[in-house]
Design goal:
By secondary structure, this protein is an alpha+beta fold. It is 17% helix and 31% strand. The protein contains two helices and four strands, in the order αββββα. A four-stranded antiparallel sheet has the order 1-2-3-4, with no helix packed on it. A hairpin with a 2-residue loop joins strand 3 and strand 4. The chain starts with a helix and ends in a 17-residue tail after the last helix.
């Protein structure tokens, strides 16, 4: 398993980062339809282990149909994750 420093070094060498801090970085993906998607990758320690959190906003709350978004569809394996409304 790579260390946080190894992850940072690899990502810095392959991508232009929107933000690059000691414990997180932001990557922005651009699509052909002019849409962009930001992904924040954050390092933290919990339960005496190193973890990476991937966080990406999907849409404004007013545009989200909550019951549909929270359904876990058959055939999709989720090891962990959450849908958070701000």
């Amino acid at each position: 398993m790579p260390t946080w420093q190894e992850v940072q070094t690899y990502v810095r060498s392959k991508y232009k980062l929107a933000k690059d801090e000691a414990n997180f970085f932001d990557m922005v993906w651009a699509y052909d339809d002019s849409r962009t998607q930001i992904i924040r990758v954050r390092h933290f320690t919990a339960f005496d282990k190193d973890w990476l959190e991937f966080r990406s906003p999907i849409c404004a709350e007013a545009n989200l149909h909550h019951p549909v978004a929270l359904v876990i569809h058959d055939g999709i394996s989720r090891q962990g994750g959450a849908l958070v409304l701000e």
